[in-house]
Design goal:
The complex is a heterodimer.
Chain A: H1 9-19, H2 24-27, H3 47-60, E1 67-68, H4 81-87, H5 90-94, H6 105-122, E2 126-127, H7 134-145, E3 152-156, H8 161-174, E4 178-181, E5 183-184, E6 187-188, H9 190-196, E7 201-208, H10 218-227, E8 231-236, E9 254-258, E10 274-278, E11 291-295, E12 301-305, H11 312-315, H12 328-365, E13 381-384, H13 390-398, E14 402-403, E15 406-408, E16 411-415, H14 422-437
Parallel strand pairs in A: 1-14, 3-4, 3-7, 7-8, 8-9
Antiparallel strand pairs in A: 2-10, 5-6, 9-10, 11-12, 13-16, 15-16
Chain B: H1 4-7, H2 44-56, H3 78-84, H4 87-90, H5 102-119, E1 123-125, H6 131-148, E2 156-160, H7 166-173, E3 177-181, H8 191-197, E4 202-207, H9 220-229, E5 233-237, H10 250-253, E6 257-259, E7 280-282, E8 294-298, E9 301-305, H11 321-357, E10 362-363, E11 373-376, H12 378-384, H13 388-396, E12 404-405, E13 414-417, H14 425-444, H15 446-451, H16 463-468
Parallel strand pairs in B: 2-3, 2-4, 4-5, 5-6
Antiparallel strand pairs in B: 1-7, 6-7, 8-9, 10-11, 11-13, 12-13
Helix pairs in contact in B: 3-11, 5-11, 6-7, 11-14
Classes of the chains: A alpha/beta, B alpha/beta.
């Protein structure tokens, strides 16, 4: 019996007889003979146990760092047990996109709850069911803001470079222009932005906090964008969003972000979760799945996929996006995380990040040569200069079980979350001191 | 059922973090939001029960037969999930130095090697997160290829009218015009229409084979030749690869670039609509355009490099890495023979169901099928007023997920059935019997089918109301 195939050989023969064929080859008689393979050059199956040994071997080739001071788009946060248990339930894991509402109320309601939570976090009116990741969400936001005569995207130079790169790829695809707004002292320069705005600009994209961890004057940048007739798009960190002024309060038309911090492990970069919310006048331009509330024939509350006239399976080449599968299970993960945390727990995570990052910044910047690169307020990431070759410093940290900050232009980008204890921070600082002494 | 917000009680909070061990710092109030987000405040037992209730209202592959055509809802082996959740994978930061993530890089390289062998492609990226994302990436390679040759006149992508909606939507997103060409009665490409459509403006063709009627287009070599002779490239939509993996390869059919749905063909779960993985494979001529970064090998060491004329990134990191691990686990568990056996049994099961149902319903294209087939309920609709929707909804009361409805669009009142290889004959016999009894009921008491379903958590929802008066979030006021 083949793996995961329940039919016994006898049953296979009986079924072949029932359909009037006598061999496997007969089933493929419709294919040109020249296309039929002899054999794949793939080794025989290892069995479940053999596969386990191989995969565990690969996992052991990776280094797990007990202490992580690196973020830059992927963040190490505490994941409560409830999150892992609930999101492992086979009903959630093995179901398809909820096209059949009658037997998909669980998935649909969880997305509706997710949409509500994203609206609450961002202070905007409508949310979709998710996008692949924060970077592709930013690119999709730019696409939804483009109009026939306004196609250019202005993106802050202080945004995550990987996000900028994905926005550029999507704009290349659509034949739309991208220009970078210069940064000054680590934050988006409003004067430069004002000078760049003209009738060709579709939208302005900034991040809060930005790539260097700094808190932008988003309200002012939004005001400038709108004064030039452009839409204002904010990419936000969802943990910081618990405490910072919301995109809604800052006048954003669209908010996007990477929701990996909401209960998803680092996982070498994925699966992560892009989220996307919009003001009510932009809601019908949102790409992807959207769940709405209605009633069934008996008047009972029901949830369905709605506003589908925007989507590829209905509109084909006139669709606003080709997105089909998204990151539903990750959206469930984020909503379980936010439910477990509640408003107080989420606030506590944000407060711990902020306090610990500031403690770390003080300790690190007290070491000779590690000055803070920028003056502005930051959330849980900050850049310091580095008085030595950063690679050799990072190797030294590595040998002590610490994944140090990420080397960037002008120094090192550090990240501190609720996972970093004072002891760890003090040890990191001590190693930096040693390194400076030589 | 109540929403979590309606179960919330102010002040319910349980601490998950230890006390703050550094001096507390307050964010300046000038920077903070006016109020807290109104998240639910619930206790752990109530949260557990809330989601258990939601799980009971969700039908997964584990809950019953799921013959959803074009979606390949096969069994998701549990070892895959367990291996993907090893801390040696989940605790790895995507920006760790490469020498500390050799296991991750090697896993991607191994998966690439196996999947290239199965598809006949030379190189592969895992950056796309889903099938449509893969299409976007693959068609971008076609765009970059023509541009690299200074061939700016190639502005059109040819798509048969039997294609998935993502194909034409993808062509538009990548800046191409779509040329729709008609299919014949079996959903296959009409060669004359194709010959007429191609020209110096042809950038490429997007094709699914077997097509969306479950028929293998036997003119495939001629089709790809027509495109190549016109100077275009051929894109293979891998949605239906489950029919032929280990038996025939898109790379041998003349395709230049393609995507796989690891969440369909390679047994990783669908998660209620993702995360999937839309791996994109291509021939060596296109490899230099792949998204950056791409895993390479030097001796025993794996590292990331940037293809020389990369179209750029399509995602922040390396795609849905844990999904790739699941597919790799599947492949090494079942091996080359297992891959072929999966395809063969998928085709056998589909033909078995089609044979038994063809005596009851009208099959859109009689004769043999590949891994799926399409019924047309046009006659039932005309003569008894019972639609494909009514039959699909009636199946819900049998504890079954219905087939794909109203697709492909070239078949009226379509029901598209894909049993997959992981279903037993008993399960299929049960489904056949259910469809037979529904047919009989359609003749005797058609109005009862329009009432279905009866025994599901909700009955038919009012979708028109949902779209006309969109209620897209909970209203707290």
């Amino acid at each position: 019996m083949a793996y995961y195939v329940p039919s016994t050989e006898d049953e296979q023969l009986e079924m072949m007889r029932a359909i009037g064929v006598s061999s496997w080859d007969d089933l493929y008689a419709g294919l040109p003979a020249g296309l039929l393979l002899e054999d794949l050059n793939i080794p025989a199956g290892l069995s479940e146990y053999g596969a386990r040994v191989m995969m565990e071997g690969l996992a052991s080739e990776n280094r797990i760092f007990p202490s992580i001071f690196r973020g830059a788009g992927a963040y190490n946060h505490y994941i409560p047990s409830l999150v892992k248990q609930i999101t492992s339930r086979e009903e959630f894991v093995t179901s398809y996109t909820p096209y059949q509402a009658e037997i998909s109320q669980g998935t649909l309601q969880s997305i509706f709850e997710f949409q509500t939570m994203m609206c609450e976090l961002t202070g905007l009116d409508a949310s979709n069911a998710s996008i692949y990741d924060g970077a592709s969400a930013a690119a999709s936001a730019a696409a939804m803001c483009r109009a026939r005569n306004r196609a250019v995207v202005l993106i802050s130079e202080a945004a995550n470079p990987r996000v900028i790169s994905v926005v550029e790829t999507y704009c290349y695809a659509a034949g739309a222009g991208v220009k970078k707004i210069p940064a000054r002292d680590g934050v988006t320069d409003g004067e430069s932005l004002a000078a760049m705005l003209d009738d060709s600009v579709a939208c302005v994209y900034i991040e809060q906090p930005n790539y260097f961890g700094l808190i932008e004057d988003a309200s002012e940048l939004g005001r400038i964008a709108h004064s030039g007739g452009a839409k204002f798009v904010m990419g936000v960190n969802p943990i910081a969003a618990a405490v910072l002024r919301t995109p809604g309060e800052c006048g954003a038309d669209v908010a996007v972000g990477e929701a990996q911090p909401l209960g998803m492990p680092l996982s070498f970069g994925g699966p992560y979760l892009g989220f996307m919310t919009a003001s009510s006048d932009m809601a019908r331009h949102l790409p992807g799945r959207i769940v709405g509330e209605t009633v069934d024939v008996d008047g009972k509350r029901a949830f369905v996929l709605t506003l589908q006239a925007r989507e590829q399976h209905i509109r084909r080449e006139r669709a606003s996006s080709n997105i089909c599968s998204n990151q539903a299970l990750c959206a469930l993960t984020a909503s379980v995380y936010l439910t477990v945390m509640g408003p107080h727990g989420l606030r506590q995570v944000a407060d711990h990040c902020f306090s610990k990052a500031h403690y770390a910044a003080e300790q690190i910047s007290a070491v000779k040569g590690f000055e803070l690169a920028h003056e502005g307020e930051f959330f849980h990431e900050f850049v310091t200069s580095c008085p030595m070759d950063s690679e050799s410093l990072l190797r030294r940290l590595e040998s002590r079980g610490i994944l140090g900050g990420l080397p960037v232009d002008g120094g090192i980008l550090w990240c501190v979350t609720e996972m970093n204890t004072r002891e760890e921070i003090d040890e990191l600082t001590a190693i930096l001191r040693e390194a400076v002494r030589g | 059922m109540k929403l979590s917000f309606e179960k919330s009680r102010q002040g319910r909070f349980f601490p998950l973090l230890p006390e703050l061990d550094v001096p507390e710092r307050k964010i300046s109030s000038a920077l903070t939001r006016a109020g807290s987000p109104r998240l639910p405040e619930m206790s752990p037992p109530d949260i557990s029960r809330h989601y258990s209730e939601l799980a009971r209202r969700t039908h997964g592959v584990n809950d019953g037969f799921y013959p959803l055509g074009s979606c390949t809802m096969k069994y998701n082996p549990k070892i895959n999930d367990e291996m993907a959740n090893l801390p040696g994978f989940t605790h790895i930061h995507p920006l760790q130095p490469e020498h500390t993530a050799q296991g991750c890089l090697e896993a991607m390289a191994r998966a690439e090697g196996l999947l290239c062998e199965i598809t006949g492609m030379d190189s592969m990226t895992f950056q796309p997160a889903a099938g449509a994302h893969g299409e976007f990436t693959g068609v971008l390679l076609i765009k970059a290829y023509h541009e690299s040759r200074g061939d700016s006149a190639r502005t059109k992508i040819i798509v048969p009218d039997s294609a998935h909606g993502t194909n034409p939507a993808t062509a538009t997103m990548t800046g191409f015009q779509v040329v729709n060409i008609p299919s014949d009665g079996s959903g296959c490409v009409t060669l004359d229409a194709l010959r007429e459509a191609v020209g110096p403006d042809t950038a490429g063709l997007m094709l699914t084979n077997p097509n969306t009627l479950g028929i293998f287009d036997r003119n495939i070599l001629e089709i790809t030749k027509i495109i190549h002779d016109a100077g275009g490239l051929c894109y293979y939509d891998g949605a239906n690869l489950n029919a032929i993996m280990g038996v025939a390869r898109p790379g041998d059919m003349g395709f230049d670039v393609m995507h796989l749905n690891l969440h369909k063909t390679f047994s990783t779960p669908h998660g209620g609509g993702g995360p999937g993985s839309g791996a994109v494979g291509c021939k060596s001529e296109l490899a230099r355009f792949l998204p950056s970064p791409h895993v390479s090998r030097r001796g025993d060491e794996f590292f990331f490099d940037a293809p020389s004329r990369s179209v750029g990134r399509v995602g922040a990191f390396y795609g849905n890495f844990l999904v790739v691990l699941r597919a790799l686990t599947y492949l090494v568990t079942i091996g080359g023979d297992g891959v072929r056996d999966a395809a063969r049994n998928a085709v056998l099961n589909a033909n078995y169901m089609m044979k038994h149902l063809s005596g009851i319903y009208d099959v859109a294209y009689p004769g043999g099928c590949m891994h799926e087939f399409v019924l047309s309920l046009e006659r039932l609709k005309r003569e008894h007023g019972v639609s494909a929707m009514d039959v699909a909804k009636s199946l819900l009361d049998f504890g079954m997920h219905p087939p794909t409805m109203y697709f492909p669009m070239i078949v009226k009142e379509a029901l598209m059935i894909e049993p997959t290889e992981t279903e037993s004959r008993e399960t299929m016999d049960f489904a056949i019997a259910a469809l037979r009894s529904i047919y009989e009921r359609a003749l005797e008491e058609p109005e009862s089918l329009r009432e279905a379903p009866i025994h599901t958590p909700i009955r038919r929802p009012d979708e028109v109301n949902a779209a006309r008066h969109p209620k897209l979030r909970y209203n707290f006021d």
